[in-house]
Amino acid sequence: MNESVSGFVILGFSSLGSFRHHIFIILLLLYFLIITGNVTIALIVWVEPRLHTPMYMFAGTLSFLDICYTAVTIPQMLVIFWIGSVYIAFSGCLLQMYFFHSLGITENYLLTVMAYDRYIAICNPLRYSTIMTSKCCKRLIFVCCLCGFMSPVTKLILITFLPFCRSNEIHHLFCDLSPLLHLTCADTFLNVITDFAINSCIFFLTTTFIALTYLKIVITIIMMKSTEGRRKAFSTCAAHITVVLIFFGSVAFMYVRPQRVYAPEFDQLVTINYTILTPLLNPAVYSLRNKEIKKAIKKYVQLNGLDKLGALSHMT
């Protein structure tokens, strides 16, 4: 463990003054919407047997990842916006950075697997049920988690060898590599190159796979004779493409570049985009517009309402 510093003070947007309390209220509302939307999707997929198919299992896993992903950072961000700063131990800082990156990378892989699922469903529909079985789906989710949680280990180990002698104040919203590199007085070339290589490799491999997959999907859809079939196929893929563009676009701006190129203020603004907007939009774009999920939600809302009415009638 690094002995040059015991912990860090995370300042966030320190120049906002009392205006940060207004941001606290907005962020708290957004966090409530994120948790409500993603918990609803995850629970509905879990309890509704009709939704125990690969497409919905992937959607439920995506919502679960977003719940964990935001829980790593947003509660701390709320504290920062309310009181102005927060202290975090060095080990806690590393843990926060590890889980933030591992969950984000896992979501990256999961979106790639979801593209493969859409490819099989549209380009090879007759064999879909035999290829994308429940067992296969669970294995793919496990592999996504395994790869996601292994990917950030190397760059986190390298951080433990850096001496932090400039300051212990992080001008960011949580612990991340870029703000930490601003505090070290050692040569960070190896850290920057390693991080850039890992992020670039993951990003370009997954985006290339998704792009080639959707190229084949588009060709298959265009060749369909039925207009209704083309419409349904495009509708099925549109939600996933939207989520992919939101997620990968945000990640590309933040991580597929040398980590010390931009000012901390720029990093903070981009951070808000992919830590808040992406988990907020995922349920609305990918799941809540889906007819089957809406039917399942309506069913359980009606059942819950009937149960409450029954309980009241017994009481009276």
From TrEMBL:
Top-level lineage group: Eukaryota
The entry's keywords: Cell membrane, G-protein coupled receptor, Membrane, Olfaction, Receptor, Sensory transduction, Transducer, Transmembrane, Transmembrane helix
Keyword presence, Transmembrane: yes
A Pfam family annotated for this UniProt entry: 7tm_4
GO MF annotations in UniProt: G protein-coupled receptor activity; olfactory receptor activity
Keyword Cell membrane: yes
Main location: membrane
Residue span(s) of domain G-protein coupled receptors family 1 profile: 37-286
Record's subcellular location: Cell membrane
UniProt-listed InterPro entries: GPCR_Rhodpsn, GPCR_Rhodpsn_7TM, Olfact_rcpt
Recorded topology in the membrane: Multi-pass membrane protein
One GO CC term, this protein: plasma membrane
Transmembrane regions: 23-47, 54-72, 78-100, 140-164, 196-222, 234-256, 268-288
Entry similarity comment: Belongs to the G-protein coupled receptor 1 family.
Protein's name according to its UniProt entry: Olfactory receptor
